[in-house]
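hey m, so remember when u said the tokens were messed up on ur end? i reran from scratch. heres the input so u can diff it against urs
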Amino acid sequence: MNVKEETMAILKQFDIGNKFSDLPVLPKASVLISLFVKKGELYTLMTLRSKELRTSAGEVCFPGGKRDLGDRDDVDTALREAEEEIGLPPDEVQVVCTLFPIINKSGLLVTPVVGFIDELFCPRPNPAEVSAVFPVPLDFFTSEKDHFGAHGAAGMVGPLHSFHFVDPDSGNQYHIWGLTAMLAIVVAALALRKKPEFDVGFDTDDPFSFFHKILHRRISKL
């Protein structure tokens, strides 16, 4: 198998399907974690949100947003948002899996959708929402070199992860932190079958159990 086929086979083992579709108590959102292979290495696409936005302005995120009434499911939401934000046609995404949802700082139930795209895809960012789109090697999120972890952050279970990434093409520096960093770490650890060089705060061999406990603990307090 090549890199893409092997990665897809690995990630499909962690697909949650519709296990959490019956959680009506929280507003829902989805993000698209798009992967592609370049020179034998796995990469993911990330965005820098516009400074004009009301929430998370100027922060690094995966394309995504809140569930619309017309969305059939979490995958629909992620694909729609990616098309709106970076011009990625839904039919150019090979959806691999849906991972366990995580409650973000705003109380949204965020579901990560992982899919493969063509390495030649050229983003067309919507300037009203996105200031920049840039690729990051997935392996970057397992290295201690540019990582910083803070413990005891308000509302966080485990360390608050933070990375400083310099885009080799543009020279621009990006601060990747919080939920976005956590999701990138999870996908990197699973897809690469590689334990990060730093304390992630959960078992990378069985992250589902950890996030499942957190989800039910948060929901029980509502």
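this time it looks ok to me. The chain has a mean pLDDT of 89. if urs says something different then somethings off w ur setup not the seq
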